[in-house]
């Protein structure tokens, strides 16, 4: 039998450090929480080399008395609770008293503090758990904590740290959460010699949002507010026209603490049901407050998760508040594009009233209607709402001439003099007849005939083969063709690039900026040239010419989402493949695109040049083959 022994304080603190201090950002979060609990109105954060070499937090809080300084690094020593009952009435961000003990065990730790009524301060050094006696020193009122060489005596944890920019991205995200939760506090963030943020105190949360996420997001936010018994909900949610492919821009704060709660995230998604496309997530900055006895914050070491006493009521309040806001808002004014004057509208009052009626119908579950065949159909507009009002004229589709597969939309030629609308209508009718004729199967239908395949439902191509018949997915096949072409050019660095005459700026979050900064060379290889432009803003100088129909900012935004979801654990070559997958998918013809006979022939000819013509880059089959024997068996010829 192995002998049971009591672990030493040093080992206990190292174990706690493994749970609480996952990376430098975890230490920044714990120290900033301590500063806020001390009543600080200004907090200065200084970082060097992503926090691995230095983390310095200075505040103007209440300070620490000299006799209490040794207790700050003692395990589970705290001034925030006194007994077990206090755990159900926690009003502070920190309360376990293990953060400083854990941090000082795995770093070179310096604590310098002075109370406001003291003549001088005191400092204490701790090297890997070895404490030096506190000595008097000069310092301003408040507390300064310096952490150097984090994980210097824990090489396993230090080995798993990411690049400097990635680690700083996590630190910046922790800083962002604190600054959004406490807009009345002055925060600064400095990385090396670069001043990243200097945020003076403000009363309007929207101003902080503007600093971190740009004017486009801040100006289109919808303010929400509700109070139910003792639970208060305030904040902003995003315009449905602005969404993300992940939920990273959903900030939820409970009593000043950033939390993640799946039930509340689901309620947020339900409130936007019908307003966002599938796979898109809304933007939110919401602050909830409730008596501490209604929530248990002691369920997770990092305190990111909480447990509500009545989670169903909180869920209903969030969902009901957002839906009520959407129903009572003048959506015609609220959903105004960025840069448009407040006095202008997209339609008359009748259009706005129709929009509100449709939203009411959606909320009642009456949007889904049946067509003439009884099939449920959901129609969508710019806001994914159903416009069935007679005041809306039918959509008019203008045919355009597409001369090449994947080419950008061409400018329409000028109308010659003397040509009347009647002439144009006759010409369109003739063009439609010729197009229909071109898509009819010709006699023989083989490879040597004039028409090699026919298009079915504007998404499938049916072609005759020596063995029987092939049904080809036009999007999957074109995606495979483009992917192999792009991959060959990218590896040879011969990808066609469109440079911008005037570079375009794009505001990113801290994590997004870190992901882009890490992958700059890989992005350049696929034709996307970006560079830092101060803060978390990047400058877009070029983008792939094959995506010329898309806005550069939209392209880079989609690439950033791809980097965050796929690029975390991928090698450079695999990441390049993922980006090429995305680009080929965006540039390929879509299901529903009408193809000319020349385009169909081009797809079939290029199909035989692919290394793997049987699958698209995502693994879906490009064609289904039916042999003559199988067709004969289906028609009972054998």
Write a brief caption for the model.
The chain is of the alpha+beta class. Helix content is 35%, strand content 20%. The strands form 6 sheets. Strands 1, 2, 3, 4, 5, 6, 7, 8 and 9 form a 9-stranded mixed beta sheet that branches.
Task: Describe what this molecule looks like in 3D.
By secondary structure, this protein is of the alpha+beta class. 35% of the residues lie in helices and 20% in strands. It contains 20 helices and 25 strands. The strands form 6 sheets. Strands 1, 2, 3, 4, 5, 6, 7, 8 and 9 form a 9-stranded mixed sheet that branches. Strands 10-11-14-12-13 form a 5-stranded mixed sheet, sandwiched between helices. β12 (250-254) and β13 form a beta hairpin. α2 (24-37) packs parallel to α6. The longest helix has 18 residues, at 164-181. It is elongated, with a radius of gyration of 31 Å. The model is unreliable at 331-348, 366-425 and 432-450 (pLDDT under 50).
């Amino acid at each position: 039998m192995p002998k049971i022994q009591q672990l030493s304080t040093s080992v206990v603190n190292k174990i706690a450090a493994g749970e609480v201090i996952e990376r430098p950002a975890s230490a920044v979060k714990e120290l900033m929480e301590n500063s806020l609990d001390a009543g600080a109105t200004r907090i200065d954060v200084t970082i060097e080399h992503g926090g691995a070499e230095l983390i310095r937090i200075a505040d103007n809080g209440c300070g620490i008395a000299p006799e209490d300084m040794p207790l700050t690094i003692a395990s589970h020593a705290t001034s925030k609770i006194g007994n077990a009952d206090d755990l159900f009435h926690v009003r502070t961000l920190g309360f376990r008293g293990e953060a400083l003990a854990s941090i000082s065990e795995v770093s070179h730790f310096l604590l310098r503090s002075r109370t406001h009524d003291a003549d001088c301060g005191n400092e204490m050094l701790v090297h890997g758990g070895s404490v030096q006696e506190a000595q008097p020193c000069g310092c301003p009122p408040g507390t300064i904590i310096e952490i150097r060489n984090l994980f210097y005596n824990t090489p396993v944890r230090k080995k798993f740290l990411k690049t400097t920019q990635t680690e700083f991205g996590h630190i910046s995200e922790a800083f962002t959460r604190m600054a959004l939760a406490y807009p009345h506090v002055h925060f600064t963030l400095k990385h090396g010699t670069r001043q990243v943020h200097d945020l003076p105190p403000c009363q309007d949360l929207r101003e902080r949002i503007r600093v971190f996420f740009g004017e486009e997001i801040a100006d289109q936010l919808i303010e929400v507010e509700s109070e139910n018994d003792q639970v208060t909900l305030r904040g902003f949610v995003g315009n449905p026209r602005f969404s993300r492919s992940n939920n990273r821009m959903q900030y939820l704060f409970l009593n000043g603490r950033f939390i993640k709660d799946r039930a509340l995230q689901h309620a947020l998604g339900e409130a936007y049901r019908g307003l966002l496309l599938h796979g898109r997530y809304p933007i939110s900055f919401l602050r909830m407050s409730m008596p501490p006895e209604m929530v248990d914050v002691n369920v997770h070491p990092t305190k990111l998760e909480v447990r509500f006493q009545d989670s169903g009521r909180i869920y209903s309040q969030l969902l009901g508040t957002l839906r009520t806001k959407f129903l009572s808002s003048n959506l015609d004014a609220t959903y105004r594009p960025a840069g448009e004057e407040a006095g202008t509208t997209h339609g008359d009052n009748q259009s706005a009233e129709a929009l509100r009626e449709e939203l009411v119908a959606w909320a009642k579950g009456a949007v889904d209607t049946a067509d003439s065949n009884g099939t449920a159909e959901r129609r969508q507009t710019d806001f994914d709402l159903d416009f069935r009002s007679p005041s809306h004229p039918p959509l008019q589709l203008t045919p355009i001439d597409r001369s090449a597969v994947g080419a950008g939309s061409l400018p329409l030629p000028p109308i010659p003099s003397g040509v009347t609308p009647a002439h144009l209508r006759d010409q369109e009718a003739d063009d439609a007849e010729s197009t229909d004729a071109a898509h009819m199967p010709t006699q023989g239908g083989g490879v040597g005939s004039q028409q090699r395949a026919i298009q079915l439902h504007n998404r499938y191509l049916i072609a005759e083969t020596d063995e029987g018949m092939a049904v080809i997915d036009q999007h999957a096949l074109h995606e495979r063709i483009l992917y192999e072409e792009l991959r060959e050019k990218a590896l040879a660095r011969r990808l066609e690039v469109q440079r911008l005459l005037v570079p375009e700026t794009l505001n990113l979050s801290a994590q997004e900026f870190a992901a882009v900064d890490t992958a700059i060379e890989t992005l350049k290889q696929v034709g996307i040239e970006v560079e830092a432009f101060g803060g978390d803003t990047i400058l877009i100088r070029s983008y792939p010419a094959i995506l010329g129909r898309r806005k550069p900012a939209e392209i880079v935004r989609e690439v950033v989402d791809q980097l965050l979801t796929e690029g975390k654990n991928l090698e450079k070559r695999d990441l390049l493949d993922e980006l090429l997958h995305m680009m080929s998918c965006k540039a390929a013809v879509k299901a529903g695109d009408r193809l000319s006979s020349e385009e169909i022939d081009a797809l079939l000819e290029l199909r035989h040049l692919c290394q793997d013509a049987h699958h698209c880059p995502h693994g879906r089959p490009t064609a289904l083959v039916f042999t003559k024997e199988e067709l004969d068996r289906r028609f009972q010829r054998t």
